[in-house]
Amino acid sequence: MNTNSGYNPNKKYFNSEWLDKIDKRDQSLINRAFNALKNSYSPYSNFRVGACVETKTNEYFIGTNIENASLGLTNCAERNAIFSAYSHGYRKKDIRAIAIVSEDKKLTTPCGACRQVLSELLEPTCPIILTNGKELLVTDIIHLLPLSFSLDL
Ligand SMILES: [Zn+2]
């Protein structure tokens, strides 16, 4: 099983269904996202999130959530990861997948702001891998944000 074939973008997979089957590349991406989570700066929420973008040329860009006392200036893990990839010159056509992970009891899905950002910076069907280490959902931005706002560039 790998993110480029075989996943149903709206189906949640549970440990017994995916742990043994997951593609090594996807597992590596998830592991890197969990490593990024350890660096979370989240003293206000104590809610740690990690993310990792993988390019088609096997470059990795991690991100974690960085909070701020003003709260509104907090930046999410997935935005930090994809901004880093773009900062290094990569664009949507170069990105293979993104993993977004948390330690919560339920799957953590991207907030509305992140969905809007991902809708512009990812290809529509780029795999978005969500996991808390127990459940796994592989989806894409078409399913996370249908009818998103965009300008013709
Ligand atoms: Zn967000």
Automatic annotation (TrEMBL):
User: Cellular component GO terms, alphabetically?
Assistant: cytosol
Q: Which Pfam families match?
A: dCMP_cyt_deam_1
Catalyzed chemical reaction(s): 2'-deoxycytidine + H2O + H(+) = 2'-deoxyuridine + NH4(+); cytidine + H2O + H(+) = uridine + NH4(+)
- Does the keyword Zinc belong to this entry? yes
Q: Which cofactor does it need?
A: Zn(2+)
Any idea which residues are catalytic in this one? 78 (proton donor)
Write the Enzyme Commission number(s) for this entry: 3.5.4.5
Entry keyword Acetylation: no
Keywords recorded for this protein, A-Z: Hydrolase, Metal-binding, Zinc
The CMP/dCMP-type deaminase domain covers which part of the protein? 24-152
Give the EC class as a word: hydrolase
MF GO annotations: cytidine deaminase activity; identical protein binding; zinc ion binding
Amino-acid positions noted as binding Zn(2+) in the UniProt annotation, renumbered to this chain: 76, 111, 114
**Biological process GO terms, please?**
nucleobase-containing small molecule metabolic process; pyrimidine-containing compound metabolic process
NCBIfam families hit by this protein: cyt_deam_tetra, PRK05578.1
Tell me, what does this protein do in biology? This enzyme scavenges exogenous and endogenous cytidine and 2'-deoxycytidine for UMP synthesis.
PANTHER family registered for this protein in UniProt: CYTIDINE DEAMINASE (PTHR11644)
Concerning its family, UniProt says: Belongs to the cytidine and deoxycytidylate deaminase family.
Report the protein name in the record: Cytidine deaminase
Species this chain originates from: Peptostreptococcus stomatis DSM 17678
